[in-house]
Amino acid sequence: MDKFNKIISNIQRVYLTENKPFVIGYSGGKDSTLTLQLVWEALSQLSFNKLINNIYVISVDTLVETPYIQSYIDHTVRSINEYGDKSILPISAYKLIPKISETFWINLIGKGYPAPSQTFRWCTQRLKINPVDFFIQDKVAESGEVIVVLGARSSESSSRSQVFSNKEEEKQKHPNRLSLHPSLEGAYVYTPIEDLSSDAVWQYLYSNPSTPWGSNNRDLAAIYQNASGGECPMVIDTSTPSCGNSRFGCWICTLVGTDTSMENLIDSGEEWMIPLIEMRDFLRTSLFPENKAKFREYKRRNGNVYFVKDTNRIAYGPYKFEWKKEFLKMLLIAQKSIQQNGPDPSYQLISIDELKLIRKIWKEEDHDWEDSVPKIYEEVIGNKFPLDFEDGIHFNTSDFALLEEICGSENLPSELVARLIDEERKLHGMSKRSGILAKLDRVLNEEWRTEEQVIAEDVGPIDEN
Fold first, then answer.
1. Strands 22-25 and 179-180
2. pLDDT (tens digit, 9 = 90+) per residue, 75-114?
């Protein structure tokens, strides 16, 4: 156990000589559990008068975590705070979540962002990096500088090994082998277990099965045994590889072909998770090149059409409105099924606040005069959707049918006219209507030809070979 005693001594030296708060990233996996356990052990050996810097333990809930891990992390955060109050350590734990405007479903179902892919991995920054950055920035503002403690190991993947290699020269220059945070001023990164192997990690966890915060490491081992794949570490930059096939990744991750972890859980008896894997697999089919025209708009969200570089192929934009509605329906059906068949009848895949914001986005960006969110919710869930009071002018399905009839007789795109009306409606009743002409002008300058017209007039026939 000499190697672990050396790590504990090193943690004590860093804490005492750097004189900065620790921000410990905890993902729920074996590496972050070991790191937190070693830090707790190391600092508990110090006298009370030396524990002058706070210790913050942070976990990120992307709100699309695998259900078991979400529950496991919630329990751990509560336990750390309960046991921390009884210890001498100035330790506290926090569960971080993305801003509601940046959640997975707001972006995918609300704004129509295509499911994440290797070429458009929009989820990592919004769901994982930003919540951590906001927390660290807040603590830097309070203390001047902080040390971000991560359970990263150089042997866990070739990608991480390359990151460690690139940082080695920088760490050699620092007396405590710290590196600068990749993007945040005033933050340093410390990786105390970077040289350990996976076997060494399990060696310590099995030798010390009871954590200082009351959890059992054998329960953690059981989680790994019930599913394949590694873990998803705390992410502080986009160099971290995808963890979509990980037991500790997001259930909806489309960055990998097959989620073997979730499949193994289902095979081991957790059939209530089937709706999750079915929705993930269906979303992934929308990324196939042959399906892009089916699922996605030919225009981007700014109303313009773009083409793939050096080709005559359209670079498709957000999901079509009809599919956004279908995805919402699928999600609510999955939620209802899990509540009925899973271990937690109150489990939510999407919150009411997210549904309300999606409703607002659809009304503003998709001129959803039908008001689809409450209808879909009530159709699937069977309960009345909790509507907030709304002032102003409201249109409905019959209004849009009339609009389509009039526009059809005048050979005008009904979507264009609806957009113009919606821009006017947003400023209805306001004493100052500054900027309305510019707004209308932007709408008129968007692409209003059909996809077929754009292809025929701008690029000619598409060569599929």
1. unpaired
2. 999 999 999 999 999 999 999 999 999 999 999 999 999 9
Quick: pLDDT tens for 155-193: 765 444 444 555 666 666 576 789 999 899 999 999 999
Write the CB contacts of 141 (distance below 8 Å, at least 6 apart in sequence): none
C-alpha–C-alpha distance, residues 198 and 156, integer Å: 8
| Whole-angstrom distance, CA of residue 351 vs CA of residue 131 | 18
In whole angstroms, what is the distance from residue 412 CA to residue 117 CA?
36
Calpha distance 1→442 (Å, rounded): 67
- Angle at which helix 414-426 crosses helix 436-444, to 10 degrees, equals 170
CA atoms within 13 A on the CB side of 280: 26
State the amino acid at position 37 in one-letter form.
Answer: Q
pTM: 0.86
Q: Residue 128: enclosing H or E segment and its boundaries?
A: none
User: Which pair of tokens denotes residue 143?
Assistant: 């203390």
Q: Residue 77 — left, alpha, or beta (φ > 0 → left; ψ -120 to 50 → alpha)?
A: alpha
CA-to-CA distance for 314 and 317, rounded, in angstroms? Answer: 9
List, in sequence order, every residue forming a beta bridge with 146; answer none if it has no partner. Answer: 187
SS3 label, residue 190: strand
CA dist 36 to 61, 93, 166, 350, 358, Å? 18, 11, 25, 30, 38
Give the CA dihedral 264, 270, 276, 279, nearest 10 degrees: 70
Task: Please state, in angstroms and rounded to a whole number, the distance separating the CA atoms of residues 268 and 273.
Answer: 11
- Non-local (6+) Cβ contacts of 140 within 8 A are 146, 184, 185, 186, 187
CB atoms within 10 A of CB 280: 22
Contact 320, 297 (CB under 8 A): yes
Amino acid at 252: I
Distance CA 11, CA 91 (A): 15
Residues in the chain with pLDDT values less than 50 = 158-163, 242, 244-247, 460-465
Q: Is 17 helix (H, G, I), strand (E, B) or coil?
A: helix
